[in-house]
Write a structure and sequence with these properties.
arginine biosynthesis; 21 strands; globular; 10-stranded mixed beta sheet; amino-acid biosynthesis; alpha/beta; CPSase_GATase1; 10 helices; EC 6.3.5.5; single chain
């Protein structure tokens, strides 16, 4: 390494200030000083005298199936990854988003431009690992400031082999996704791969019809025994102290769903997505929860059959993927939305009460209400596009929501849905 020193002498400090009064003794104030700057040059640049840039340069590409190529800077893991690009409009909670299993197979683009300023901690994780394919952001914070921060976002992603890119025009990509719909993309830091190769990869991969649930579900049943911490235990007024046993099907369940059920006094047995309905009925629980999860509900007919076998025998509550599976099990149809709903700020109208709830949502598929049989009631509607956001079938003790009532990190407008599930189980138990 070669070191080059530059000296700059300031000989006229009077140019640094002005005064309305003449100085009686200028020499007592004026001081000449010298600034020395040292710049290291790599051996291959020493001959040209060109220094290494002290900032990161573009070393990654996002290639979309529509042919657009977006240059960016990488953080986290390196390599090449393919996934469906979706945008999330949440202003907070990037760590909960990273650990939401429903994002399996997807690249999440955050519309909030500044990400990483609070770092990451180990209290806010919604699952045991990160399942998304990559993270796309506008600006990566150069520093972290939070009393719970355990490490930086970049280190966190690198340890979990998750790719991230920044310094990319996320606003332009979001507008493209809203206009053209969700697009398959390829993230790559490998210079050896040409743009044409990456474009071909994006056009040869599809997320529709793929069973993503089996890759995120637990492998064996387990009891949820973690205590609910005080900061998670809210809306406790009115609980009667009854305990209900709930079997929760793990299609990619978030921890906060389990926390909220436990906070309402439930004993919870979590079972894999392939757990037979006959085994659930043998346990004789008070109710069954069908959780959120990634991908196409039409790609998991085994899960639909499980739901069918349980309907009418136990009270059930479906959330997101669980809601879609219930819709199919009741004879309805699901369809892929143009760009889905992803964010913590979606308005939903409760048609029973007339109230509007601000909700957290994450799904690319929806139930077609026109395909549902008589007796099935649409209880909630998304006010952004009028899509079905909730169902009920009182004759069979069924309720479901196409969004996240547990809403970690928030909002908590819909938390009372858990109380409704408790009341559903209570009535069924009294009428048994």
């Amino acid at each position: 390494m070669v070191s080059k020193a530059m000296e700059m002498a300031v000989t006229n400090p009077l140019t640094c200030f002005t005064s309305s009064k003449p100085l009686s003794n200028p020499s007592s104030i004026l001081r000449a000083f010298t600034v020395r700057c040292s710049v290291s040059l790599s051996s291959d640049r020493a001959s040209t005298g060109v220094a290494e840039r002290p900032w990161k340069t573009s070393d990654a590409r996002l290639v979309l199936e529509d042919g657009s190529i977006w240059r960016a800077k990488s953080f986290g893991a390196s390599g090449t990854q393919v996934g469906e690009v979706v945008f999330n409009t949440s202003l907070t909670g990037y760590q909960e988003i990273l650990t939401d299993p429903s994002y399996a197979g997807q690249f999440v683009l955050m519309t909030n431009p500044h990400i990483g300023n609070t770092g990451v901690n180990f209290d806010d994780e919604e699952s045991m690992q990160c399942f998304l394919g990559g993270l796309v952001i506008r600006s990566l914070s150069i520093s972290t400031s939070n009393w719970r921060c355990a490490e930086t976002l970049g280190d966190y992603l690198a340890e979990r082999n998750i790719m991230g890119i920044y310094d990319v025009d996320t606003r332009a990509i979001t507008r493209r996704l809203r206009q053209d719909g969700s697009l398959i993309g390829v993230l790559s830091t490998e210079e050896s791969k040409t743009d044409e190769e990456l474009l071909e990869l994006s056009r040869s991969w599809d997320i529709v019809g793929v069973d993503l649930i089996s890759g995120v579900s637990c492998k064996t049943p387990y009891e949820w025994t973690d205590n609910t911490k005080s900061q998670w235990d809210f809306n406790a007024n009115g609980r009667d102290g009854n305990t209900f046993h709930v079997v929760a099907y793990d299609f990619g369940i978030k921890h906060n769903i389990l926390r909220r059920l436990a906070s309402y006094g439930c004993k919870i047995t979590v079972v894999p997505s392939t757990w037979p309905a006959s085994e659930t009925l043998k346990i004789k629980p008070d109710g069954v929860l069908f959780s959120n999860g990634p991908g196409d509900p039409s790609a998991v007919p085994y899960a639909v059959e499980t739901v069918k076998e349980i309907l009418g025998k136990l009270p059930v509550f479906g959330i997101c993927m669980g809601h879609q599976l219930l819709g199919q099990a009741l004879g309805g149809k699901t369809f892929k939305m143009k760009f889905g709903h992803h964010g913590g700020n979606h308005p939903v109208r409760n048609l029973r009460s007339g109230h509007v709830e601000i909700s957290a949502q994450n799904h690319n598929y929806a139930v077609d209400p026109a395909s549902l049989p008589e007796g099935v009631e649409v209880t909630h509607v998304n006010l952004n596009d009028g899509s079905c956001a909730g169902l009920a079938y009182p004759a069979q003790n069924i309720m479901s929501l196409q969004y996240h009532p547990e809403a970690s990190p928030g909002p908590h407008d819909s938390d009372n849905a858990f109380q409704e599930f408790i009341e559903l189980m209570k009535r069924a138990k009294e009428n048994a």
